[in-house]
Sequence to fold (241 residues):
Amino acid sequence: MATARTGAPLIEVRGKIGNIVFQRFGDGLMMRERVVPDDRRTTAQLQSRALLLRISVLWKSLTDAQFEAWSTYAPANPYVAFTGLTCKWLRLHPDGTPPMLPPLGPFFGDAVNVWAQAGTSSAASDSPKTVSKAVIEVDPTPSPSPLPQEIEGEGSGTLIVNGTQPNATNVVTEILVQKMANSRRKSRERGWVTVGYLTFATGNLSQSVPLAPGAYAVAYRFVLSTTGQTTNLVHLASVTI
Fold:
């Protein structure tokens, strides 16, 4: 990278030439190498983009009455509310048609207490049922922050998630993790990745989710499957797979 003071020969220099980019910097000009943004186009990212496109089409198809209902439900930003709820609903019902009207009331969660551990289930729980395929989900909700890091692959490790009782009707338990350098690291506000939607039931209070070996921060929240409403995250103890 190099800089040049502005003068008659350089005062109009701007833009790029090949891999060199010129831009004004204070009273001078800056010359730097052109950087191409990294777009990995992973499966999770492509799925999230396709989901956002689908939600955008649904938003544009709202009737006047439906639009007014969402504007009343979330006057500050009805589109963000519609996107968040519809996204979560479609994660649970990928082949369904989501509600076009907002929820009629709040969602207060569930009475289930949840804890997680690596490798083996709690002795007080039923034999763990394996989730047939781990859900690797990157939250696509529009945000100025970058997309959370994807957890690469399903791996050979196992996260055991236990519940104290069955979930209430139409309520599922969403499990989220963050890959950490070690178990002593603190989780970030953003960067959570969904790895499973679990439904605790009688005889199935312990379930396993495949994860690659490593240290993870773990959290959960409840989701109302009929509306896409969620509770706040509940943080669990970090685990090492």
About this structure: The chain has three domains: 2-33, 43-92, 114-240. The mean pLDDT is 82. The two ends are 44 Å apart (CA to CA). Residues 43-92 form one domain.
